[in-house]
Amino acid sequence: MGSISVLLVGKVLPYLEQELDKRYNLFRGIDPSQRAAVLRDHASSIRAVVASSSGGPDAALIEALPKLEIVSSFSVGVDRIDLQKCKEKGVRVTNTPDVLTDEVADLTIGLILAVLRRICECDRYVRSGNWKKGDYKLTTKFSGKTLGILGLGRIGAAVAKRAEGFDCSICYYSRNEKPDSKYKYYPSVVELASNCDVLVVACPLTPETHHIINREVINALGPKGVLINIGRGKHVDEPELVSALLEGRLGGAGLDVFEKEPHVPEELFGLENVVLLPHVGSATVETRTAMADLVLDNLEAHFLGKPLLTPLV
Amino acid sequence: MAEEEKVELQQLKHENQDLPQVLVLGSPTCLQTLKQLYSHKFRFLIPNTSLDSLYPLTAPLSSISAVICSASFSITAPVLRLLPSLRLVVTTSAGTDHIDLNECGCRGIQVAGAGKLFSDEVADMAVGLLIDVMRRVSAADRFVRTICEAATWDFPLGYKISGKRIGIVGLGSIGMEVAKRLECFGCTILYHSKHKKSAVSYPFYNSVIDLAATSNALVLCCALNEETRHIVNREVMLALGKEGFIVNVGRGSLIDEKQLVKFLMDGEIGGAALDVFEDEPNVPKELLSMDNVVLTPHCAAFTSECIIKLCELVAGNIEASLSDKPLITQVKW
């Protein structure tokens, strides 16, 4: 398959890049000028695109690749890929569901505990020598609290399962109520926010869920409420979030994603009730390797005429 | 500080003179709340001399029948000798390694602890610390706050927690709560305890070395006593290995701290999350610059929610003792 041309448009695990290089004729097009050069010379030979959460083919790119057959994304979120365009052009799309569900759910609980129990702040307190001056203040208990989950898909359900081990009550909002679910359903995000202590954003990013966490929802969550975002930065109206935190209208936040990564609003740096992570939801050795293998296996299946493992389109 | 009384003070003109006196040692975190809630029931005496010295012996000390102490104040035989009328020691901690239980027993002094009050809080913290050290949460937060704007997010990968093998050292109330939480992460729970627990189905390991050899992480939840001092030593850490992690929410001396520092410096162990240390509040300086350690100031138990419950328990134990009723959370020796 060494003659099949593949274009890489998003940042991926080095292992994946190396394997793509070995198996295919790989073109790197992450950087815009790199991409322009590749398109100029090789657009008509590219049969596959490998995307990630940091970059995916939009309508323009898909149009520019007449021989494109498949987009394989090194992520579960595909908000960077124009799925509609892919459908129109008969381009297959695969992502990496399930292999990162546990990982992201683990980190979600870690974020909740880090915010409520001020673990990162405590660590700073010790490292700065402040413990010698006195004990750290009291923090907030997690066990027994009410967790609100926005989007009870694979990741949301995995978070709920873990939170049950902490005797949390679980409630959720979803596009449609899930009749088999034992958790309490709220028909709106504002109602969900009003009735929980910690709100976890775990839904896909779509035009409908853009800025689903807005001023109204943040105010409903309130001065003792905590927002945890492990979805996409654009789920949250970031300037509203920042002002709510600065004004004390929101109790705290644990954020793994931001509207314009890697940019993080500097106003958050001085706050002790926020935890800020560099989009590491799936960032473990084990999971990134599994994701890479899934991308490779999907591509191989496609070019051998076999069924795709994890097709979205 | 204005309301605190020096132990050396003579008779007080305070209207609470007739209330039972309770000596408070070691500045427990719950002290302010205790005073707010129970100053109508007890007269709290708080020495403003150094914690290490209660000399000279004065009249008020010799009539003290109840003491409240924190985990940071050692109730030793010499201290007990200063309190000849002492009938009750109430510690605000679950741990009792700072109390000479033998000496208390010989003198007919009852001891009460925090029992299972903090088990949820400490278990929550233990899981939070485990996730933090394996997924590099605190290191990542530091990274985001200090990285310059132009840089990309090139941050080292962490290790998966779900499905891993977690070895719990000490399957008491706290250990069981940790196990219950990590089971929901799909972890395999293994344990070492003084004795195998017949009611529990987790695999039991007679030695901590064997436990370490088969675990991805050790979570230390046991009491500190003569048998458990340095229970995590060089051999255990060798068995745990380069990708192994340790979480300590018990007592600092459960781990040979000097060896731990050496193992971390040599990269012979994956990382450690520590809420307790051998010589608090001192922390080995080598740890302060490491990214694969998480350091918290012995605060696993302390949430606002538990403080009121703790005060109720402390007061309840004192009242029980004063009315010759059984203590709520008596510590047997």
Automatic annotation (TrEMBL), chain A:
GO terms for cellular component: cytosol. Residues 9-310 form the D-isomer specific 2-hydroxyacid dehydrogenase catalytic domain. It is an enzyme of class 1 (oxidoreductase). It comes from the Eukaryota. Residues 109-281 form the D-isomer specific 2-hydroxyacid dehydrogenase NAD-binding domain. The keyword NADP applies. This is glyoxylate reductase (NADP(+)). Belongs to the D-isomer specific 2-hydroxyacid dehydrogenase family. Keywords: NAD, NADP, Oxidoreductase. It holds the Pfam family 2-Hacid_dh_C. Its EC number is 1.1.1.79. One of its GO terms (biological process) is photorespiration. GO terms for molecular function: glyoxylate reductase (NADPH) activity; hydroxypyruvate reductase [NAD(P)H] activity; NAD binding. SUPFAM superfamilies: Formate/glycerate dehydrogenase catalytic domain-like, NAD(P)-binding Rossmann-fold domains. InterPro entries: D-isomer_2-hydroxyacid_DH (IPR050223), D-isomer_2_OHA_DH_cat_dom (IPR006139), D-isomer_DH_CS1 (IPR029752), D-isomer_DH_NAD-bd (IPR006140), NAD(P)-bd_dom_sf (IPR036291).
